[in-house]
Design a protein that fits this description.
globular, three-stranded mixed β-sheet, single chain, alpha+beta, about 300 residues
């Protein structure tokens, strides 16, 4: 019997017209913000993709892997981030700052459910070559305007990985364990407090340190200022990054839509600075609608 592979769909008629309208709306907005279009390769060397997802074993399991007639190990792109980093690495003549957007298909061999398909369109907007928080503020402003144009109310939760690392260091988490602990904290809403405690225990974290982590996450919606005071972080690099971005968001009147969340971290090891995740403000769709992260990638990316 002829049928589509599970998690893949054909689009035509009214549904395809709606999809194209959304894409056109986003494209017009991106170009208004002076981002230029890019198309990256669907096929990539497997080594390139796998080398950049340290700390995200689930991602490696979900990559579509194949071998060509030359016995080269390849993979269909899992997202648009690493293929973009490859373009930057292969083209040293690109003038910075460089702003690009891409709307293209990505592939994931994972469980299929609402909001998770195996073949789907992803939309990326990136800025390279700006070291300060201005790029993050612009991307947050762009995201809020994009969803406003699509008539979707959102809440954008944001944090800073460097700041979270400073908190973990202050409560005794060794540097080599911080990424693993961040991955666990990022699951807080999914696995709740007891799940976090069990997962931390399975990582053989010192019980005293686990108690300090649980004390942290049991705080009732702590503000940035409360955390700085409690853990003596005022003036630390990550704390300063949060402070500057918070001021920028206030200046452009986005503080109500863009809310600080000290436990948000995202899963990938190359996320080093600001991270954010976008949610449906009405609560009718629980999965995130979008993510963003400030990242550091080596020159051989």
């Amino acid at each position: 019997m002829m049928q589509n592979i599970k998690g893949t769909y054909d689009y035509f008629g009214k549904e395809q017209a709606l999809r194209k309208n959304i894409q056109n709306t986003l494209q017009d907005l991106f170009e208004l913000y002076d981002f230029e279009s890019m198309d990256t390769t669907l096929l990539n060397e497997l080594d390139l993709l796998t080398s950049k997802y340290a700390g995200g074993d689930e991602i490696l399991k979900e990559m579509y892997q194949l071998t060509d007639q030359g016995n080269r190990k390849l993979s269909l792109r899992y997202d648009l981030t690493i293929p973009f980093a490859k373009v930057i690495a292969l083209n040293p003549g690109i003038e910075f700052p460089f702003k690009r957007y891409e709307i293209g298909k990505v592939f994931r061999d994972g469980p299929v459910k609402r909001g998770r398909l195996r073949e789907f369109l992803q939309c990326d907007v990136d800025v390279v070559g700006i070291s300060g928080p201005e790029a993050e503020a612009e991307l947050m402003q762009l995201a809020t305007e994009a969803f406003r144009k699509l008539d979707i109310p959102i809440i954008l939760k944001w944090n800073n990985r460097r700041f979270l690392g400073e908190i973990l260091e202050s409560i005794g988490v060794p540097a080599e364990d911080q990424l693993s602990v961040m991955l666990t904290l990022d699951k807080l809403e999914k696995i709740n407090l007891s799940g976090v405690k069990n997962e931390l225990s399975s990582k053989e974290i010192d019980p005293t340190t686990i108690a300090a982590i649980l004390e942290l996450i049991e705080m009732d919606n702590p503000s940035f200022e409360q955390l700085c005071e409690k853990y003596s972080l005022t003036g630390q690099p990550g704390a300063m990054e949060v402070l500057v971005l918070q001021k920028l968001l206030q200046d452009i009147q986005l503080q109500q839509t863009c809310r600080f969340d000290p436990f948000l971290s995202r899963g990938l090891s190359f996320y080093t600075g600001t991270v954010y995740e976008i949610f449906d403000a009405s609560g009718s769709f629980t999965s995130s609608l979008g993510v963003e992260a400030d990242m550091t990638l080596s020159s051989d990316s």
